[in-house]
């Protein structure tokens, strides 16, 4: 096990060191901007990517988040040039690169499977992109040495990739990309094969290198937490489309579709009818189960059927007020810092799931009568026709 | 417990050991002693000096040359074929493999005569080339070294294709894509990624066809001329026509040693790789 410990401790130092080694020679901000318009791809009649548009600023960390089959990897492969889009354009700093081969795009790639060359040593692997770029031998030796040193991999320079642990291999793969300082780095679930602890540590490394070098990183994952930790902005993908492209906070607090509301951190959905807008501009929704829930301003006509979404942590238990919804506590489970409660509202149709509430306050007992409400900023309203 | 197990292992090994002693070790010792015995029954190296001098030596050298040419040619053709097959979809790959292997279900004699019909002065190939006005056609493709090497190459081809195809299928195509992603040209990918990854297969396949070719008899005998006598044909001649068993035995031992030498080269290469590997690991 000594190697494992090594890789863990070495990693802590490495991220900043690595950035320090690579940064001084890059005068301008390293990253470049990326603009994607109308990207489409279908395989034998099945549309996999259905019109992706996005503007990514230089130095931004953007993540495609979605379940498998959402089109996130196909989109990345089109950006990389490994997959040819049916239509749409990709521009880097305003230059159209849609027709260029992967090698001509000068992107960096890190894949889940590392894809280190098994017949080359660690040093040869890292040197490979430099030799292709005609960098002088002495310069290659120096840069490879510095990069490996900073990543805490110096003593593995002469080893073959298969002699390294998964975390070390992924770090080599990262070095192999960063050593030639590509302006845009594409990563396809690079930490997918690592265990939790190593993954957390590598996330920190990747993030700090990206920030210090000002790299534009486009990242693909299905891990929500990873996306939230790393990203400046997250594109939530579903059925080949971007459901919402926003900052983690924006996605969490202002979901634009029911899917996004439920996908990130779960949501309670309540159906109802919009009432006359009140003076403070909020949208009151008379719930089918009785009671009124005030929601954020939403463009809709009085009488329209809507769905209101509230996160479990944003529902509050209150004494009977005018606009609260009464119900009975079904279960209350203590899970450490908070208690998870389920409440069946009076008048809820049989078969509908109970409300999920998370509270840090003294929890009620099962069977107790409660009244539930939420702040209007925490209630999102969607037209009933919206999917998700 | 351990003693019991090793005793059982010993008992299990008996049939194989007996089989090898009776049918392999004993004949080899017999051949060896035959090759070291003079006409009067005394020890002599006469048969070896005889085998390694004059016309006999040139037969040995031409055998080595033909084997080397066959190994190289079957590697070249085999590489192209295996590369194509490795990239096919499984169904077509299986079909292609069948086409390569099936001719070898036919008797070697029949197959060789097939080649003779194809390669003769008025054979299919020369007829085609002549009608296409190829310069210098018809070519003499039979009863010379060209004929022999064409024949032996066709015999060795399935082995090289099978070995190379297996190694090529093991190459992760995503590695090649990754190299392309770094900006490598197709030539660079081929020479710096693909070839090194299939190199062990190339070594094994080449050596195997070389070794197999050393002792091959039918094709050189039928498709070669007087100049293309190979060691196996010489042995046949000495035993069947001259009743000269001692000399034939000496040739047999020389062939065996050459084969061992070939295997030794392969083993040495593997050992060096392993040692280099171990050195790196311990450093």
List the main descriptive attributes of the protein structure presented here.
A: 388 residues; Rossmann fold; OB fold (Dihydrolipoamide Acetyltransferase, E2P); 10 helices; elongated; disordered N terminus; B: 283 residues; mainly alpha; MetI-like fold; 12 helices
Order of helices and strands of chain B: HHHHHHHHHHHH
Q: If classified by CATH, what would the architecture of the domain at 59-251 in chain B be?
A: Orthogonal Bundle
- The largest sheet of chain A has its strands arranged as 6-7-8-3-9-10
Determine the CATH topology of the largest domain in chain A: Rossmann fold
Shape of chain B: globular
Task: Describe it.
Chain A is an alpha+beta fold and 388 residues long. Chain A is built from ten helices and 20 strands. Chain A has helices at residues 2-22, 72-80, 102-105, 122-132, 137-150, 166-178, 196-213, 224-230, 248-253, 258-263, and strands at 34-43, 46-56, 61-65, 87-92, 95-96, 107-111, 184-188, 216-221, 233-238, 241-246, 268-274, 283-287, 292-295, 305-310, 315-318, 325-334, 339-345, 355-359, 369-374, 380-383. In chain A, strands 6-7-8-3-9-10 form a six-stranded mixed beta sheet, with helices on both faces. A five-stranded antiparallel beta sheet of chain A has the order 13-12-11-14-20. In chain A, strand 16 (325-334) and strand 17 form a beta hairpin. The radius of gyration of chain A is 25 Å and the shape is elongated. Chain A starts with a helix and ends in a 5-residue tail after the last strand. With 283 residues, chain B is mostly helical. Chain B has a domain at 59-251: MetI-like fold (Orthogonal Bundle). In chain B, 79% of the residues lie in helices and 0% in strands. Chain B contains twelve helices and no strands. Chains A and B meet through helix 3, strand 6 and helix 4 of A and helix 8, helix 9 and helix 12 of B.
């Amino acid at each position: 096990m000594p190697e494992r410990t090594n890789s863990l401790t070495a990693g802590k130092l490495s991220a900043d060191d690595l950035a320090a080694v690579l940064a001084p020679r890059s005068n301008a901000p390293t990253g470049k901007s990326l603009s994607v318009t109308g990207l489409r791809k279908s395989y034998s009649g099945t549309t996999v990517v259905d019109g992706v548009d996005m503007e990514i600023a230089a130095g931004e960390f953007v993540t495609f988040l979605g379940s498998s089959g959402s089109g996130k990897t196909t989109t990345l492969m089109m950006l990389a040039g490994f997959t040819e889009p049916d239509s749409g354009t990709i521009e880097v700093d305003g230059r159209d690169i849609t027709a260029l081969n992967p090698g001509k795009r000068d992107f960096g790639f890190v894949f889940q499977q590392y894809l280190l060359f098994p017949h080359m040593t660690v040093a040869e692997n890292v040197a490979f992109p430099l030799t292709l770029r005609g960098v002088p031998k002495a310069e290659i030796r120096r840069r490879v040495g510095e990069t490996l040193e900073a990543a805490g991999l110096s003593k593995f320079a002469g080893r073959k990739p298969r002699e390294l642990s998964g975390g070390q291999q992924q770090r080599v793969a990262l070095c192999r990309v960063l050593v030639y300082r590509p302006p845009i780095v594409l990563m396809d679930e690079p930490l997918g094969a690592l265990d939790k602890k190593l993954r957390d540590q590598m996330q920190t490394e990747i993030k700090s290198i990206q920030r210090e070098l000002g790299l534009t990183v486009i990242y693909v994952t299905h891990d929500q937490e990873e996306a939230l930790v790393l990203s400046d902005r997250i594109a939530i993908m579903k059925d080949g489309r971007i459901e919402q492209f926003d900052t983690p906070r924006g996605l969490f607090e202002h979901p634009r579709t029911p899917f996004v509301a439920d996908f990130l951190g779960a949501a309670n959905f309540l159906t109802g009818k919009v009432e006359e807008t009140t003076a403070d501009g909020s949208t009151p929704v008379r719930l089918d189960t009785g009671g009124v829930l005030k929601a954020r301003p939403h463009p809709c006509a009085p009488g329209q059927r809507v769905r209101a979404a509230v996160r479990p942590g944003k529902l509050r238990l209150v004494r009977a007020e005018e606009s609260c919804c009464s119900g009975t506590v079904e279960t209350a489970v203590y899970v450490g810092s908070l208690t998870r409660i389920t409440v069946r509202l009076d008048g809820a149709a049989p078969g509908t799931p109970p409300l999920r509430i998370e509270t840090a306050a003294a929890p009620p007992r099962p069977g107790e009568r409660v009244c539930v409400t939420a702040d209007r900023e925490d209630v999102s309203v969607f037209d009933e026709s919206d999917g998700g | 417990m351990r003693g019991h197990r090793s005793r059982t292992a010993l008992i299990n090994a008996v049939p194989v050991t007996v089989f090898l002693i009776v049918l392999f070790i004993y004949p080899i010792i017999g051949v060896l002693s035959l090759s070291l015995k003079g006409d009067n029954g005394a020890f002599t190296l006469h048969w070896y000096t005889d085998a390694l001098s004059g016309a006999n030596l040139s037969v040995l050298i031409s055998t080595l040359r033909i084997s080397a040419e066959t190994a190289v040619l079957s590697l070249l053709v085999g590489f192209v074929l295996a590369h194509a097959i490795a990239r096919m979809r499984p169904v077509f790959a299986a079909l292609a493999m069948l086409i390569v292997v099936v001719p070898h279900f036919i008797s070697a004699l029949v197959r060789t005569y097939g080649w003779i019909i194809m390669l003769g002065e008025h054979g299919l190939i020369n007829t085609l080339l002549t009608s296409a006005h190829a310069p210098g056609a018809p070519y003499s493709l039979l009863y010379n070294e060209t004929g022999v090497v064409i024949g032996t190459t066709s015999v060795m081809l399935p082995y090289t294709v099978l070995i190379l195809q297996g190694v090529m299928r093991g190459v992760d195509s995503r590695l090649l894509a990754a190299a392309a992603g770094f900006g490598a040209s197709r030539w660079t990918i081929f020479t710096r990624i693909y070839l090194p990854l299939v190199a062990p297969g190339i070594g094994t396949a080449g050596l195997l066809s070389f070794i197999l070719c050393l002792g091959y008899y039918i094709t050189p005998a039928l498709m070669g001329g007087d100049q293309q006598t190979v060691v196996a044909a010489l042995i046949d001649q000495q035993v069947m026509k001259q009743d000269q068993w001692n000399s034939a035995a000496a040739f047999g031992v020389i062939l065996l040693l050459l084969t061992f030498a070939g295997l030794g080269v392969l083993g040495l290469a593997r050992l060096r790789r392993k040692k280099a590997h171990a050195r790196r690991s311990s450093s």
